[in-house]
Every structure is written in C-alpha cells, then in structure tokens.
Write a structure and sequence with these properties.
The chain has 285 residues and is an alpha/beta fold. It folds into two domains: 223 residues, Rossmann fold (3-Layer(aba) Sandwich), CATH 3.40.50.1000; 26 residues. Strands 4-3-2-1-5-6-7 form a seven-stranded mixed sheet. It is globular. One of its GO terms (molecular function) is metal ion binding.
Length: 285
C-alpha cells in the first residue's frame, strides 16, 4: 500500500511542529556514509593516501574489499569495531596536517561526486524550513568536517583521534558511533537549544538505531535489512536515495516545492517537489 492508498490524510514529514510564541529551533541529523554519500567516506580516500605514501598497495586492496562489503551488506557493531581497529592502527604516526591537506586537495574529486542528489535536496529543504543541519559520522573529523562544509551543514560531529606532536597516536579520544552519536547529539542539543522531540534524523544502518530513537522524526535511508525491519515495525519513513551527483552539477537552490512555500512546507506543494517519490515510498516497503 502506498501513502496515497491509505485513506487517512498524510502528515508532511518536513512539517514544522505547531508552536505558540517564539519559533522552536530544531535540527536535522544526518549520518554520512550510504545516507548522504554513496560510499564509506574514509575508505574513499584510499587512493590519495596511497599516492602520498601513507598506505601500501596491499592496504589499498584491503580497503577496496572492505568498501565492497560495506556497500553490499552494510556493517554491524562487530564489523564497525574491526574497521575502527584497522583504521586506527593504519593511521598511527600519520601527520595530521598532511591528512587535512590531502582531504582538502582531493575532496572535490573524491567525495562530492558521490553525494546523493536526493540527500542534497532534503538538506536544502530542511534549511529552508529554518532547521540546522548536522552531519554525524563515525569517520574522522578531518574527513567529515570538510564534507559537512561542502554540504552547507551547520555542524559536524565525528570521531576524534588523540594527537601528540602533530601526529596520530592510534588512540581514539571520542568514537562517534552508536551511543557515542547519541551523546554528541544530546550535548549539541543542550548547547543549541534543540528540543529533540521536534528534530529529525536519517541513517542507513541498524547501528544508528539509538540516534534514530532519540529524535521525534526518524527516517531510514537505503536501510540495511535489520533497520528496514525496525522501520517497518515502527512505521518510520523509508527513503531510497539512488542518484549520486556532483555538488557542482546539482541546483544549489532548495527543491521546487520548498521554494514555493515559506517557513512551513505544505504537503500538497511538496508533492510537486523533488522529494515526492521518496517520501511517498514510506508505506511501500
């Protein structure tokens, strides 16, 4: 059954909550890998890291295989822990400024063509509705922060490594994963004044279930099997993003339906916009 077949009026997923008095400041939290971009952000940089002598050819091949498995089936908690151990061991001793320089020089070539057009449009719509946009990722902050800036996000929260004398020690100061994401979101919400019951969150992975549960408006994007099952059981929207496109090639403005509205996007107007097909799929899975 699709949304149009259900018989009951459909609530607009981007509709701002009814409030009295001063407007409520809210946010939309986005996981990064396979939610906003089509690959693992960390593994995507294997080639430039190899070109700069940071990793070996064997490591590049292992990273490519890990990327393939990640795209094929996602990653559960155990796999994420193994990936964290692998990546922290790999980057031990790397110069932080060199990593930042590589990311800055290759970001446009490596990552921006992987951004889902649907995600970019959804981010633009949330911003038009007056919401902050926050990228929340288990990848390192040296990678996540530049991507978040390119997307026009308000904040970025990511894994932080311990640094001594300008080099990574191989220890993790903060792991932005699972309950760690929830901790970061709660701290930011307290600092910025976001009522989480009025906030939104998007992810592809069952490992982000805690992040989705902490907000009032969760949605699954390209979900793995476990998250799809959970989303269906809880009647959460299930969105399909499938069009990676360079940020340079997409229209920088919000989607047509969002432009046609003011602070609140009407459901009928949104039906004519770029997000219609994905929003109406919530009952089709």
């Amino acid at each position: 059954m699709t949304a149009s077949d259900s018989g009951a009026p459909q609530q607009n997923p981007l509709q701002a909550p009814a409030t009295t008095g001063a407007p409520t400041r809210t946010a939309a939290f986005f996981d990064l890998d396979k939610t906003v971009i089509a690959k693992s952000s960390t593994l995507a940089f294997s080639k430039p890291f190899f070109d700069q002598g940071l990793i070996s050819r064997r490591t590049v091949l292992k990273s490519s295989y890990a990327q393939f498995l990640f795209l094929l089936s996602g990653a559960d908690h155990d796999q994420m822990d193994r990936m964290r151990t692998h990546l922290t061991n790999m980057c031990t001793g790397w110069d932080v400024e060199q990593v930042k320089a590589i990311v800055a020089e290759t970001l446009d070539e490596i990552v921006t063509p992987l951004v889902f057009a649907e995600a970019a449009e959804l981010i633009a719509d949330h911003k038009l509705c007056g919401r902050d946009v926050v990228v929340v990722s288990a990848s390192g902050e040296e990678i996540v922060a530049p991507i978040a800036r390119a997307l026009g996000a308000t904040h970025a929260m990511a894994t932080r490594m311990v640094v001594e004398d300008g080099k990574y020690t191989g220890e993790v100061a903060f792991y932005c994963f699972g309950e760690g994401k929830v901790q970061a979101i709660r701290e930011l919400a307290a600092r910025e004044g976001y009522p989480l019951e009025h906030c939104y969150a998007y992810s592809d992975s069952i490992t982000d279930l805690p992040m989705l549960e902490v907000v009032g408006h969760p949605a699954a994007v390209n979900p793995d099997r476990a998250l799809r099952k959970e989303a269906m059981a809880r009647d959460w929207p299930v969105l399909t993003f499938s069009r990676p496109v360079s940020l340079r090639d997409r229209l920088p403005a919000p989607s047509g339906a969002a432009v046609a509205t003011t602070a609140v996007v009407g459901a009928s107007a949104l039906a004519a916009g770029a997000l219609t097909y994905s929003l109406l799929r919530r009952f089709a899975f």
